[in-house]
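re: that chain from earlier
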Amino acid sequence: MSVATQRVSGRAELGFAAFLGVAGAIVIFDATRLHVTYSQADPVGPKAVPFVVGALLLVCAVLLAINVARGGTAEAEEGEDVDPNSPIGWRVVLPLVGVFIFNIAFINILGWVISGAVLFWGSVWALGSRHYLRDGIISLAMALLSFYGFYLGLGIHLPAGILKGVL
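^ sequence. v structure.
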């Protein structure tokens, strides 16, 4: 590995350390804004987990930055079969981005079951599956199972959209 490649690699790892640090700071800042009431049954409360996660992100960021400053670099995966010099597969990336944007734009209008089914089906289509009917059935089943899993299992109400009153 050339010196220039090592310098760029080190900067990229420092950038990732900075990203971890910013993410940790955001998590901790967000945790300070949580307004909860504590009870005798739960003296720790829901604020503990975000503080722990944020602190761990900050610790990882600092340790990674120290490691990179001391000359440590990540080693390439020996068993990796991907050519890092190959171009980006835009025929996969753009449809995936498209179905995610569709889901974000229409989840409240269509509801999770429809937009989630489109998201799941579009993702497997973008990744190369051409079993349209089977993928559609599996996608719809996954969307329904996740909808009711969140609703019944976790008590989280996902948007029903146009199927409100039916689901």
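The mean pLDDT is 88.
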